[in-house]
UniProtKB/TrEMBL annotation:
Pathway: Amino-acid biosynthesis; L-methionine biosynthesis via salvage pathway; L-methionine from S-methyl-5-thio-alpha-D-ribose 1-phosphate: step 1/6. One of its GO terms (biological process) is L-methionine salvage from methylthioadenosine. Substrate binds at residues 48-50, 89, 193, 244-245. InterPro entries: IF-2B-related, IF-M1Pi, IF_2B-like_C, Initiation_fac_2B_a/b/d, M1Pi_N, NagB/RpiA_transferase-like. GO terms for molecular function: S-methyl-5-thioribose-1-phosphate isomerase activity. This is Methylthioribose-1-phosphate isomerase. The keyword Isomerase applies. Belongs to the EIF-2B alpha/beta/delta subunits family. MtnA subfamily. The keyword Nucleotide-binding does not apply. The active site is at 234 (proton donor). Keywords: Amino-acid biosynthesis, Isomerase, Methionine biosynthesis.
Length: 345
């Protein structure tokens, strides 16, 4: 992504968000200065992707503190507004974690909250570069000595983070080392994060890319057309079960059947050690209209509804490697986040 495009930026009195709902056709920004507008932007996926939501949540606390002062709210009103931000979307643990990180600074005022949120943003970019290097090292050490064919699902790039990206950070790093032949970007139904966002980022970075229908992904893998799949994550349980965009499970099953690695790239903040396994991960269900219409036109018979879970949970046994900013965990070989956390001093 070009350096002048920033997903999330604090303006001093509000949050400037790159409007991801209109990409790739238009590069537009919205500035939000109140909690209602921020919650709406999060729900509509103006800003999205677990790490970007974490940073947005932290800045959202600063917005709530400013709005409370401006509009004369008491502490209970301010705290209720912060809770609305925290709960705007349920699956990515980063949103709640970003809000929680900012909470201790509320008493010091909005500028102190914003400074902490900015620290989280800066850490995210640094962490993503580390994820990229660890992930590329791990993949390339185990691969044939040639440029690789990489499959990815949804968008885990600069747009989904504060910069560089997690899964796309790994792919960018591999590309910088001359080791990417092609990226198969799943289009990612129903909101097309792969077709609209991942393909846009890869194109900007000069990384060769083909968009394919989600339904093509397992077949691409089974036909031997991909060497590795690299995806992001929204929440990872203590045992390594991983929630990511709906459709990730099909990719994981195909990788397992074909004997190629499924690499999950995510910051450690996406690990939720409070959940023993993926059974406890809340799965967001989005409006039926995202499925029943196409370009504003109804495509499903009038009396038929839709089931629209936005995420699925890949069992740990299918996750070959989890790459974080602190290193690589070979999850399917039995190295779990719970175990790694216990080893930490
Ligand atoms: O609904 P979205 O677009 O927020 O879903 C995003 C994903 O599923 C990403 O893969 C995940 O958040 C990782 S982003 C680095």
């Amino acid at each position: 992504m070009t350096n002048d495009v920033r997903t999330v930026e604090w303006t001093g009195d509000g949050l400037r968000l790159l409007d991801q709902t209109v990409l790739p056709g238009r590069v537009e920004y919205v500035v939000v200065r109140d909690v209602g507008a921020l919650v709406d932007a999060i729900r509509r996926l103006v800003v999205r992707g677990a790490p970007a939501l974490g940073v947005t949540g932290a800045f959202g606390v600063a917005i709530a503190v400013r709005q409370a002062a401006r509009e004369g709210w008491d502490d209970a009103g301010r705290d209720a507004a912060i809770t609305r931000v925290r709960e705007a979307r349920p699956t990515a643990v980063n949103l709640a974690a970003g809000v929680d990180r900012a909470l201790p600074f509320v008493a010091k005022g909005a500028d102190a909250v914003a400074a902490e949120a900015q620290a989280l943003l800066d850490e995210d970019v640094r962490g993503n570069h580390a994820i990229g290097a660890f992930g590329a090292d791990w993949i390339l050490r185990r691969s044939a000595d040639r440029p690789l064919r990489v499959l990815t699902h949804c968008n885990a790039g600069a747009l989904a983070t504060a910069g560089w990206g997690t899964a796309l950070g790994v792919i960018r790093e591999m590309h910088d080392r001359g080791r990417v032949e092609i990226v198969y970007a799943d289009e990612t139904r129903p909101l097309l994060q792969g077709a609209r966002l991942t393909a846009w980022e890869l194109d900007q970075a000069g990384i060769p890319c083909l968009v394919q229908a989600d339904g093509a992904a397992p077949s691409t893998i089974l036909r031997g057309l991909a060497d590795v799949a690299v995806i992001g994550a929204d929440r990872i349980a203590a045992n390594g079960d991983t929630a990511n965009k709906i459709g990730s499970v099909g990719v994981a099953l195909a990788c397992h059947a074909a004997g190629i690695p499924l690499v999950v790239a995510a910051p450690w903040s996406t690990v939720d050690l409070a959940l023993a396994d993926g059974g406890g991960i809340p799965i967001e269900e989005r409006p039926a209209g995202e499925i029943t219409t196409w370009g504003g036109i109804r495509t499903v018979p009038d009396r038929v509804g839709a089931f629209n879970p936005a995420f699925d949970v890949t069992p740990a046994r299918l996750v070959t490697a989890l790459v974080t900013e602190t290193g690589v965990l070979e999850v399917s070989a039995g190295v779990t986040p719970r175990q790694r956390a216990a080893e930490k001093p």
